[in-house]
Specification:
The strands form four sheets. This protein has an eight-stranded parallel β-barrel, surrounded by seven helices. Helices cover 32% and strands 18% of the residues. The chain has a single domain, classed as TIM Barrel (Alpha-Beta Barrel). It has eleven helices and 15 strands. The two termini are 29 Å apart. By secondary structure, the chain is of the alpha/beta class.
Length: 376
Amino acid sequence: MSPFTEARMHLAVELTAAGRHPAAARWARLDPAVLLSAPHHAGLVRTAARRGLDLALFPHTFHPDGGPLLDAVALAARLAPVVPGIGIAPTATVTHTEPFHVSKSIATLDIVSSGRAGWEPAVSRTQAEADLFGRKPAAAPAQLWREAADAIEVVVRLWDSWEDDAVIRDVATGRYVDRDKLHPIDFEGEFFSVKGPSITPRPPQGHPLVVLRADEEEALPVAARWADVVRISAPDLADAAHARDRIRGVVAAAGRDPDEITVLLDVEVHLAADRARARRDLAELDALSGAALPASSVRVLGPPTDLADLIGTAVSTRAADGVTLVPLALPPTSTSWPTRSSRCSPGAGCCAPAGQAVRCAPGSGCAVRSTTTRQG
């Protein structure tokens, strides 16, 4: 196991309003109005932070199924100042949006979160989503990911268009910024032409965390060049280990150190007192939606110890550097989420559900990056 993996066990959680299952809100008997309220979402993030998770991810789509979704970046900016102690990374779909605006939004999120922001660039695939904008048709994955690579480069270069000390606040001369420390980026690419500079100060981190999915071939070069965290889906840990090895290989081929990249395995999860209860819950969810929800990755249905065992095995066998928990149903009080033990000696519990200890790697420190501050 690499020193990077031994030093950290990473835990993220994907937070939708009620959970990934389309019937989650009805099953949990949530008032639809609650799903649009800031206190509800703040409570979810606060629970994740209290449990010691590293990163809260906010998914987003232009064409949601199963209920309305708030804009992920705007929601993250609302929650970040009031929930400390956890990284916050919303999805920003780059297919139909301008990278100049995305750059401003993520920089702002990093500022209001005091340097805890990340973002998950995503692509929009369907004609239905393209029709909402009316600017261009849906495209093939190869084109979508080339455009995503250009968009990410523009975003990062705009962050770098302000020098760290560009803001001077000179009262005597009435100058807020030193204009000599703002620089155009003059980007000319296949999809965008952006002059710059940004109109938002440089983020506290310099470059906020970049989270990318790498479940398809076309995404791999983009992840190899830009990702700090790579999300994968896999039906089992053997497939996850193969995907992680492949990602580390393309990262190395791109001239980067694979140990600086965190690979997180999506784990769909529904926790209950026992496996039978969890399976009954899922059957109720499927009945409410009228169809079974196929597993999109490894799935844990059972007590918290089952989840803890899977996380420990995934990290110890190098199937992943940690996991992204994807709750199928997410009631307001998620008391059975994993938490980190306050006692973590070699071989002792560092990632534990609801106060229970499980084994972790010696020296396990549990952070998301090299994820705090990265300059330049």
